[in-house]
Design a protein that fits this description.
Elements: H1 17-37, E1 106-107, E2 110-111, E3 133-134, H2 135-141, H3 147-156, E4 159-161, E5 164-165, E6 172-173, E7 179-181, E8 184-186, E9 193-198, E10 228-230, E11 238-244, H4 247-254, E12 262-268, H5 274-282, E13 284-286, E14 289-291, E15 295-298, E16 306-311, H6 318-325, E17 330-338, E18 341-342, E19 351-353, H7 356-364
Amino acid sequence: MTTNNEESRPKRIIKSANSERHASSNRNQGYERRTQHEGYHSPERSFTPNRGDAQPGNSYGNTEGGPRKRRPRVGERTSPQPRSTGGNYGNRSWGSQAPNRTDQSTVGGKKLKKKKPFKQIKYKENADPNAPIRLNKYLANAGVCSRREADEFIQAGVVRVNGIVVTELGTKITRADEVMFHNQPVRLESKVYVLLNKPKGFVTTTDDPENRKTVMELVKSACTERIYPVGRLDRATTGVLLLTNDGDLASKLTHPKYEKRKIYQVWLDKPVAMEHMQAIADGIELEDGEIHADAISYVTEEDLTQVGIEIHSGKNRVVRRMFEKLGYRVLKLDRVYFAGLTKKKLSRGKWRYLSEQEVNMLRMGAFD
């Protein structure tokens, strides 16, 4: 008996052209995905096992719509490529075109403020043009020379007033008179007031015969007028120093009878004993007379080698001599206050112009 059972019959596998194409396309898709993952981006690239079958000029690069170029062999010279004018890393610009760089006036994308040069201040003067003034003082205020030198020039007959040679010392003139020095007209200069935070190693003078560095080198760009230091600081002393061409104000600030206050900070080689602090306050006998401090104290209670001292005397090296008399060696001396002026916001070796208010206070003698 015959049974019609499809399961018992052997199955025939029929292969057609369509199915072959399906299988090959699936295989190709897997290969293309693999090659694209490895960096070969051209979907039309096929694997060529035989190098001799490759056309010259073909390469591994992706050149859409054009012939692919062959990878250059080792040692093979290639034609130079034209440089691009782009500004990025891969296409740097060369030659006459400047690269795209950050402006030198910016750091980290932030604009730097350019330092403006100091503008010289023009101070108001209330001088009476008809008020009499000594001829030597007139020449000194005009920046020609010092008063002592002016007396020598007057006696030498090189100074004329209204066309007449003047040789007598003490001659007085007015600002309206015409003064000639070596046949050159002399005019009064504008007043200039410069405050300097003096550094160590500079001599406080306008001219040094030993050719040492002077404070004038630090303020040479301040003005064209002839200014000079008011008072004196030792070469090793630092701090507040005023320079001006105002002779009247300079004499008021330095003359002993005006007793202008000065404050110093002193660094010493060993702690200062309390009895020596009291001795300085009471007065110490030096070779040129007795001298005492108006006030003296330790800067901090932890460090007894630093002392602050207030004094009115203008004698030469008076602070150093007082401590040396008691057996101490001054390591550092800094003037922090002079006649109401301080070095606040003024770095060592830097200078600034006095304000109009500061000049008026100095002229009125408002500061001690």
